[in-house]
Amino acid sequence: MQWLFNLPTAIWRRLLLILQGLWALIWLIAAGIGALLGKGGTIGSRLGAAIGGPEGQRKVFAVLRLFQPNLVIKRKVIASYPNNGVTAIATRHTDVTDILTRDADFGVVYGPRMEMITGGENFFLGMQDTPRYTRDTSNMRLVVRRDDVPTIVTPYVSTAAAEIVAMVPGKIDVPQALTQPVAAGLLDRYFGTPGPSQAAIAEWTTLLFWYLFIDLQADPDLDARAQAAAASFRDWMDGHIAARRKGRKTDDVLGRCLAMGSAEMPGMSDRDIRNNLIGLLIGELPTLSATANLALDELLDRPHQFAAACAAARSGDDATLAAYVFEALRFRPLNPVVYRRAMRDTSIAAGTLRRRKIVKDSIVMASNLSAMFDPLAVPDAPSFRTDRPWETYMLWGYGMHACFGAHINRAVLPAMLKPLLAQPNLRRAEGERGQIDKAGTPFPQHFHLEFDT
Ligand code: HEM
Asked: Which InterPro entries does this one have (predicted)?
């Protein structure tokens, strides 16, 4: 009889899928007409501005979820990693999670560029489900411990962010003054790898993250800059590891690695330590900084929710503050898709009407953004709500390769923003300065806010 009670919910969710898809289609048509008739720039640039932003992306995915949940196109979307020129885009929650857990069918692509960065070796994000993957992730989990989050990571971030905000005179360029320095400070204080300077470590990690994950068109200029950054990064890490071996013992991530290396644990030679830490550092700095800015920007666009988040920051209600930050990120995740390559001929959504054959070497994009708005899986998906279960959020991947820093992210992002959100009358600076400026990179580099002192 249970099915009888589930039937109304199932019908209602499908109705929402249809209504939301149709509404998104109308929205996109209106945006398209607006771009066609608009002035300034080319039609392409006007169209990009109208539907290329986060809201436009969500509308495109709503249409796809209804009409073509698993779209397959004969177009080479990614030139930076080998593939056969066919690209599939999965949009429904059930297919996205299915793809990201079928590691034997859909493998990670990043190996070749990881090997360029380390000068030969792969890093575990670029590895398939192999014994080497298990060894390396296990080693790194022994040094980056979950226990450290409440005892070292969060206290450091809270103190550092509060000190910075206390020092600025009512005006702050958030990425430059707050989020990059705090993320870089964590690399120093917790990882034991400060880099030759904060500017250098920020530049290397940002450039190499861009090269690994965002440079889909394989820009030769970026390639040259990434090669140079990787060589400098390796040289600095080699020198730093050698110096740390001679110096006094410190209980930070690098110190723990060195102890494991001294105990001759497999996969923990100085070269292995260098390569693993380079991988972690690239994952840490640009992502934490960028994501904090995206959350802030999304909240500022929603005055009601922004006021509630600020009130939570002021009253020390950390759980409520975190709920606002992560719900904001559901609307603005750093990455809207996670991509894989088909390891063999296979299919998505087998046994359903939306089944698609996937030929070996096709690129498969699983949209985590779309999954988080799928009305078949997420109740009241279009609304901004702070009572969602944590499992709703697919903000940093899913499955075997889900973010190594997940627990760090969950603690650090609200802690980093809290002292700023607690300031009276926090607002955007006037004009363009109060909008995110990526300064030619894929990440926020300038974002000016003001508050009363
Ligand atoms: C909010 C900040 C962050 C975001 C948005 C983010 C995003 C992601 C995503 C989407 C993936 C999955 C990639 C894929 O499956 O292709 C991932 C994996 C990974 N992230 Fe993060 N990340 C963040 C912070 C961090 C931090 C702080 C670290 C380091 C402590 C880190 C290290 C890694 C590593 C090593 C992996 C690979 C995990 C594996 O292959 O098992 N990330 N991250």
From this structure: Cyt_P450_CS (IPR017972), Cyt_P450_sf (IPR036396)
